[in-house]
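batch job 7 of whatever, protein = Cation-translocating P-type ATPase
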Amino acid sequence: MRELRLKIGKMTCVNCANAIERAVKKLEDVEEVSISYTNSSGVFLLQNESVKEAIKNKITQLGFEILQDEVKMEEVKQKKLQKLRFKLLLALILSALMMVFEIFVFNTFSYNLQLILSFVVIFYCGFDFFFSALKGLRHKNLTMNTLVALGSLSAFIYSLCVYFGFFGEHLYFSGAAMIISFVLLGKFIEEKTKNKAQIYQNRLQNLEAKKARILLENGEIKELPSSFVKTDDILLLSQNEVSPVDGLILEGRAEVDMSFLNGEFMPVLKKAGESIEAGAIIISGNLKLKANKKAMDSTLEQLKDLVFRASLFKSPLMRLIDKISAYFVGFILILALLVFLFYLPNLEKAFLHALAVLLISCPCALGLATPLALALAFEKGARNFILLKNPVALEILSQIKLVLFDKTGTLTQNTLSVFKHNLSEENFLKLAQIQTQSSHPIAKAIAKKSKESTLKGEITHQIGKGLIYKEDENTYLIGNEELVKDTKELEKTREFLNTCDEFAPIRVYFAKNGICLGGVALSNALKKGAKKLVDFLNSQEIKSVILSGDNEKSVAKIAKELQIDFHAKMTPKDKLNFLQKEQEQYKILFIGDGLNDAAALQKADLSISFSEASELAKQNTDIILMREDLTLIKLCFHLAKRTKHIIKLNLFWAFSYNLFSIPLAAGAFSLSLSPHFAALMMSLSSLAVVLNSLRLKMDKTF
């Protein structure tokens, strides 16, 4: 199965996206199609690559535009917004002028002016509506543009007939112009909102390095497009440059802005031997690095891919609403015709009611209700370092009743930290200095305290015990109790470490020349926000349980700090079995980050992991946290609650508006609505959905 991605321009409403989906799905060798109106994008799963050109041709035949790259896409969006703003202002000014003449001036000059100005508003300012409507009709696609074009054109033609004295008494030139003005106003606000919903995606796009400086074997430096960088190429980076690839630093030191990946606003110091990701910005310093991957396979590209896929996702509810919207316009056209026939032979009354039905109905409010709220929720989450791979996660979060945590790397830091020691300062610094020569996680935790790493002696590693270091006439032992069991004064150190056992169960003994000098107790520190998260879950009556493969003592210590239940020494299969059993009673959220969590992450009703988790864990998760802060999960719950509430309000408004307004326009309550008032109500309907959705962006609670 092959995948094709396209950026699509000139979509004016949700029904445009639906029309593309329906048309392309009919092509041979097209397996699946997903078009996002809010993101102006499409993804196509193909059985054969030969169908690519047919897809592009079909989209252009429908009246839409294929955009070749992100830069052009952004340029087109900005030009579209500027053009829309100009046409909106012109339409509003001319329509207001027409209204003044219609109300206060009753002479031939006034009627002539109204005719000319309405012609400009309808056929210049509203040209895109007519163009899209005609394109759609050619391919049997009915959209909101069909209703707007037909409504404004009908009002204009009717007014022409009155103007030339064929029938009727009232001119509706201003009404026809107002239709275009109000719809343009709604479209302008909608486009602005769509752009706001894509700020995070644009930010990722801006982080992409366009050029790369490659150091050749002969010492020459060559500047090439970043897409030309190959694995193992040597690259040079200087101040204010962006890393084009993921790589290993060979030389140099630099302060690097990694906020796009880890959410930390403070620069990170990077030096030789450490890795750096594509998109990292050099604040100060210089680096020489070796490319680990091509630019197209970098962490930044993977993140952009996740964002792109999430933006195209359609929930079952969205697909149902798309189907309703697809038939909605046809239903309204038939209803308008029936209303027109019902009021005959009173031609003016028949025309006004039929026109009001055409203009007041609003498929856009229905089509925007869910995707716009989800797009803004996605943007809000991304701004808070929450990446929603699956937007349906927001719906499921509100149903969660049990949260299962992995321990190491999820509730606790991936690295150990020194909890306490009973060594003199001199001996502790010596221990730390020796530990710089070991890559063991325990050694790394102690080595952080070292002020220098130069050693003259010889190290011998004792597998499963520790290491022996000989320097001059001295022999040092560093390791577990088994390694130092024959040393003097061991009992004193053992008693000290026993007092730390509850909080720091990992112990290291340090002996010199047969005498135990002391010991170090280490622990996995709780991650930031772990206690706050558990307290929040308790307040929401959501049960929490730790599932860990660690020993019981280590897990019990964390569980006691958090005051939650736990299960220790669990294999990946044990975790999966426990989860499946509990799923008989609860909707379950699993939070983990390791390879051994992959099966549970996939099987859970909802799963969350961190950006630094294993690749397999991230593939099987619904939400990725871009910062090592568990309080972000609390924000996930809050975002889910707010989004669900806003979507419910949007759908309630969209359905209730159409159920009430269409009969009203048809004259069910013995009322007659003017065309421009019907158009205003239709625009306000879409505007209500847009403004209600924008409440997510304006939410100051996070």
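notes: The CA atoms of residues 434 and 455 lie 7 Å apart.
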